[in-house]
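Protein modeling request. Please complete all fields; requests missing the sequence field cannot be processed.
Requester role: graduate student
Desired output: 3D structure, token encoding
Chains: 1
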Amino acid sequence: MKSLQLLMIGILLLSTSVNFAQEATGQLLINGKSKFEIQAETNSAVQLFKEFKTGKYQLGFNFKADDVKPNMYGETIIFFDFVTEVRKDGKLVERIVRSKPIPYFPGEMLVGAESFDFIGVLAGIDSNEKPDFIGTMPAGKYQISLMAVPKGVSGEIEPLEVYFILRRRPTR
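Delivered output (172 residues):
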């Protein structure tokens, strides 16, 4: 009987600690999808940035926060590290973690492409080798992974995977 009581107390304690776990869950989306293929019309990284700024591609971020204690103003805020990975032809070109985490309120929102660093990476892939082509991307298969990693709480934000293929460089 005593072991049954101890077992019940253990289960109660375990379930109570699970209920108070601070957690953030959600996803990053582009035009409502977590995996997206861009139809690139040019090899210009600047043109791609323009397409994000004009709304052709909308970068969405949504998350919910469970059991996160509000701050002194009654606001629930979670800080996120924004991580960008750019791959070309299957090889990692660069992985960047923003130097400062960014605070967000739970819910749905649009975020600017500049919250991540993929445009700068794409624009500079081979600009050192070919200065005349600064701001353009060489032909190849590209994969961009965007991640928002919550700080100080558990949980996961589903990353965004973006794909596109560039067949050739623009001609002059």
